[in-house]
Amino acid sequence: MDFSPITRQNILITGSTGQVGAELLRxxxxxxxxxxxxxxxxxxxxxxxxxxxxxxxWIINPAAYTAVDKAESEPQxxxxxxxxxxxxxxxxxxxxxxxxxxxxxxxxxxxxKSTPYVETDPANPLGVYGATKLSGEQALAESGAHHIILRxxxxxxxxxxxxxxxxxxxxxxxxxxxxxxxxxxxxxxxxDLATLTASIIASNPTESGVxxxxxxxxxxxxxxxTEFLRLANIxxxxxxxxxxxxxxxxxxxxxxxxxxxxxDRAFNLQLPGWQTSLATVMALLP
Length: 286
Hints:
Layout: E1 11-13, H1 19-27, H2 44-54, E2 58-61, H3 75-96, E3 99-105, H4 128-142, E4 146-152, E5 155-156, H5 163-171, E6 176-180, E7 184-185, E8 188-189, H6 190-202, E9 209-212, E10 219-220, H7 221-231, E11 237-241, H8 261-267, H9 274-284
Parallel strand pairs: 1-2, 2-3, 3-4, 4-9, 5-8, 6-11
Antiparallel strand pairs: 7-10
Helix pairs in contact: 1-6, 2-3, 3-4, 5-7
């Protein structure tokens, strides 16, 4: 899809060096892409000053405090970035008539449901990261600003810090790896999310709300790793292990599957299957 007509609009992209932010900037090369020195998401006055000075039409916020385990020991910083910043974006957007596109996470759920979560399912985050992301969703919705909240999961790409690149590096160094096999989700390519966002903006949406946006299909972390190591022709042996064998500071949901039917109904948009996108990503790697 050609997004060139909307690259001339005043678009602000936070976290433009992150996985989704970098892909958004590739689609919107003329967008505002402030550094932390320009826009500090942990500093209320910095956010308000930047929005007030630039008055963007669209505020796209993929930036977040995503260190899930570290958040358990840094709850205030996680809350400032994940909960307070969306609230401030919403308040400032409401003043100038801007729309906020905000990214959230499957971690707002506890993972105990046996089927994919829908947007109206009760949230019950297991840790600080999920709790602060949920608070950010709620604060943005309560701000009165027009908003689109995209909950996604298991984001990866050909660059940045993510599970795929970490495991590929480890597999090149070790003959055997142990990967959790009892957590289920949909690995979602950052570029697919960026393209989806651009398509939503191009549709000039009038509806506010929360929408689930992940790749189609599902797998486990073990299944995901097995597949991309196969595509990479790396012969590392991948052993399936339970979550209990890999203790972490923060608990993870066992079921991270999100039902994306609402997104399809509202925008006639679906992301590709995870295996299709994974094959494309693997072809992009050096």
